Amino acid sequence: MPDEVEGPMATDPPNVPVRVASISPFLWFDHGAEEAVALYTSTFADSRVTSVARHGEGGSGKPGDVFVVTFELAGVGYTALNVPSEHAFNPSFSLQVTCERQAEIDAIWERLVEGGTPGQCGWLEDRFGLSWQVLPRRLGPLLGDADPAKVARVTRAMLTMQKLDLAALEHAAADA
Fold first, then answer.
1. Residue 90, pLDDT score
2. Quick one: three-class SS letters along the chain?
3. Residue 3: predicted pLDDT
4. pLDDT at position 19, please?
5. Do 110 and 162 share a structural domain?
């Protein structure tokens, strides 16, 4: 007897939400997935590699090299594929890291940007080509404030920054 499936079936009306087991990011690296995952899992607490599959004889990669790595960052599951591709990462997909304190922003930024490229407004591209946003949790409330003049000051300050400076953003918000 097949497993019973919750959620809509082919006979259900359109637009019925479908229940799935999970949804998680799948990152396709041209090369360096194992090194990238090592950097990521060493940067964030509550992170670990959960499985590694290696290329075998006759596969798409060098035998013994990593093929697929599954891992967790801050408890969230990811999969990394390590196969040459014509598709590259780009900033239209990024991982957003929300930090409570400037010390967290500084530490994470420095680890991820090493060998990569800093961008504007808290964005960076790591040395593997993956885009990240390293942001203070306070940024959302500052940019969503009911006072448009305050929002404008915070926005102007943010646009001058690469790595975000929480104290400077707070100062811009308070500076009437």
1. 93
2. CCCCCCCCCCCCCCCCCCCCCCCCCEEEECCCHHHHHHHHHHHCCCCEEEEEEECCCCCCCCCCCEEEEEEEECCEEEEEEECCCCCCCCCCCEEEEEECCHHHHHHHHHHHHCCCEECCCCEEECCCCCEEEEEECCHHHHHCCCCHHHHHHHHHHHCCCCCCCHHHHHHHHHCC
3. 55
4. 85
5. yes
The pTM for the full model equals 0.87
> What is the block-wise mean pLDDT of the chain (176 residues), using blocks of 10 residues?
55 78 93 96 98 89 92 97 91 96 98 98 97 98 97 98 98 90
Look up the CATH number of the domain holding residue 39.
3.30.720.100
Q: Same domain for 77 and 99?
A: no
| SS3 state of residue 93 | coil
Pairing of strands 26-29, 76-82: parallel
Q: Which domain holds residue 32?
A: 26-82
Domain contains 144:
yes
Q: How many domains does the chain have?
A: 2
Amino acid residing at 65: D
| Whole-number pLDDT of residue 1 | 47
